[in-house]
Amino acid sequence: MRKTLFLISTLVLTLGGSAAAFAQPPDDGSPPPHPMMRHHHPPMPFMRELRQLGLSDAQKQTLRDYGRQEMQSLKPQMQALFQARLAFLTAQPGTSDFATAQAKLSQAASAAAQARVQAEADFMTKAYGVLTDAQKAQLAQLQAQHKARAQQWLEKHAAQGGTPPPPPEE
User: Fold this and answer.
1) N or C: which end of the chain has fewer CB within 10 A?
2) Residue 64 has pLDDT above 50, yes or no
3) pLDDT tens for each residue of 90-136
4) What's the CA gap between 170 and 167, in Å, rounded?
5) Is residue 32 part of a domain?
6) What CA–CA distances, in Å, run from 131 to 50, 52, 122, 136?
7) 10 lies in a domain?
8) Residue 167 — very low, low, confident or very high, per pLDDT cuts 50/70/90?
9) Exposed/middle/buried for 88, CB within 10 Å: 0-12, 13-18, 19+?
C-alpha cells in the first residue's frame, strides 16, 4: 500500500512539475506576446517566395519600408477592432449593450479584413515593381510550383474523404 501511494504521489508531482515548467514564459528577456497576437500565422506564400529570389540589400530595404507603410496604414483599423472586441467581451450577454457591441465588432472586423486585403494587394503590387525581370520570371516559376503543390494537397485530401477540390483557375 505504501509503495503504491509513493509511486502515485511521485508520478503526480513529476507530471505536475513538468506541466508547470512548460507553463512558464520564456526567460529570454522578450516581452510576452500581445493577447490578440497569440496565434502566429506563417507568412503568406508571396513573402516566402520573395525570400527565395536573392534580393539585393536595396531591394530588401525598399520592401521593409513598404511593409512598414502598410502596417501604419492598418493601425487605425486594428485599434478599432481591438476596442470593439474589448467592448464585446466585457458586455453582459442578453443586454442591448451586448447587441450593440456585437454589431460594432462585426463592422470593425469587416473593415479590418478589407483593409488587410487591400494592404496586402498594395504591398504585392509595390514589391513586384521592385523586382528585376529575372526575379519576376523566377517568382512566376515559384508561384506555379506553389499552385501545383496546393492542387496536389487538395486532391490528396479529397481522395481521403475531404471536400472535393475546386475547379482549376485559368
Assistant:
1) C
2) yes
3) 888 888 888 898 899 999 989 888 888 888 888 888 888 888 898 88
4) 9
5) no
6) 9, 12, 15, 6
7) no
8) low
9) buried
- Pair 55, 135: CB distance under 8 Å: yes
pLDDT at 19: 45
Q: What percent of the chain has pLDDT over 70?
A: 68
Number of domains in the chain: 1
* All cell numbers assigned to 150: 496546393
- With respect to residue 6, please indicate whether it lies within any of the assigned structural domains: no
Report d(CA 152, CA 145) in Å as an integer.
11
Q: Does pTM surpass 0.70?
A: no
Residue 59 CA, distance from chain mean position? 24
Q: How far apart are CA 83 and CA 155, in angstroms?
A: 41
91: how many CB neighbours lie within 10 A of its CB? 17
DSSP 160: T
Q: Would you say residue 3 lies in a domain? A: no
